[in-house]
């Protein structure tokens, strides 16, 4: 999210989380001085890629962020230091068919959630899904967000996945590029449709 009116519009859908990207190379980079008031149950997620702890702390204070999503090569120690800033931490891992989940083990005590995204050219927002069956190999207790190219065309597959044992620790669904009019600007009607379809029996 990056434009005031669009933030207000999407906030009216009462999402659990809204993400704000603080990475200058991103077409979705957040440049507003403040975030409009959101629904009281919506948490503000700040997304960073190999930022300094000082930069993250400054953004937390400026925007009253609730959660920090780390999308770069952040170390375990770095994640722990971010948690000390009084926020929850999501550590992102990019997944392909060869991904070895043992690499996430050292982060188990350092973060609150993982986010599994599709490995692509960019740190996120590539608009493509990965084979969710690989999550059968995830055996840790930290809940995770499922991300990567999820749109309305994935609804049937998503419903099936959520019934599987691989989804036991799936905490939430992260959607982004498939619901955009342009980078950072979300389509409210598409999001409403997705939400409706997902919760239909």
Descriptive overview:
The chain is an alpha/beta fold. The protein has a single domain (4-199), classed as Aldolase class I (TIM Barrel, Alpha-Beta Barrel), CATH 3.20.20. The protein is 23% helix and 20% strand. It has five helices and nine strands. The protein has helices spanning 4-11, 53-63, 76-83, 155-162, 188-199; strands at residues 17-21, 43-48, 67-70, 88-95, 113-118, 144-146, 170-173, 180-182, 185-186. α2 links the parallel β2 and β3. The protein is globular and about 40 Å long.
What is this structure's SSE topology?
Layout lengths: L3 H8 L5 E5 L21 E6 L4 H11 L3 E4 L5 H8 L4 E8 L17 E6 L25 E3 L8 H8 L7 E4 L6 E3 L2 E2 L1 H12 L2
Parallel strand pairs: 1-2, 2-3, 3-4, 4-5, 5-6, 6-7
Antiparallel strand pairs: 8-9
CATH class designation: Alpha Beta
Shape: globular
Q: Output the helix-strand order.
A: HEEHEHEEEHEEEH
**Span of the ends, CA to CA:** 30 Å
Low-confidence stretches: none
In round numbers, the mean pLDDT is 94
Enzyme class: isomerase
Organism: Flavobacterium aquaticum
Keywords: Amino-acid biosynthesis, Aromatic amino acid biosynthesis, Isomerase, Tryptophan biosynthesis
Domain N-(5'phosphoribosyl) anthranilate isomerase (PRAI): 3-194
């Amino acid at each position: 999210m990056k434009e005031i009116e669009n933030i207000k519009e999407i906030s009216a859908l009462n999402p659990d989380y809204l993400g704000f990207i603080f990475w200058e190379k991103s077409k979705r980079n957040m440049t507003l001085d403040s975030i409009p008031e959101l629904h009281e149950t919506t948490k503000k997620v700040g997304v960073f890629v190999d930022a300094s702890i000082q930069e993250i702390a400054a953004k937390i204070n400026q925007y009253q962020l609730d959660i920090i999503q780390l999308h770069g090569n952040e170390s375990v120690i770095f994640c722990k230091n971010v948690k000390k800033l009084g926020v929850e931490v999501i550590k992102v891992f990019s997944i392909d068919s060869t991904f070895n989940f043992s690499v996430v083990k050292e982060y188990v005590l350092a973060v609150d959630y993982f986010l599994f995204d599709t490995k692509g050219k960019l740190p996120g927002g590539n608009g493509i899904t990965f084979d969710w069956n690989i999550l059968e190999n995830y055996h840790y207790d930290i809940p995770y967000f499922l991300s990567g190219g999820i749109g309305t065309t994935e609804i049937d597959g998503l419903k099936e996945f959520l019934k599987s044992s691989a989804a036991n620790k799936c905490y939430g669904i992260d959607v982004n590029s498939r619901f955009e009019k342009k980078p950072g600007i979300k389509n409210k009607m598409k999001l409403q449709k997705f939400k409706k379809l997902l919760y239909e029996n």
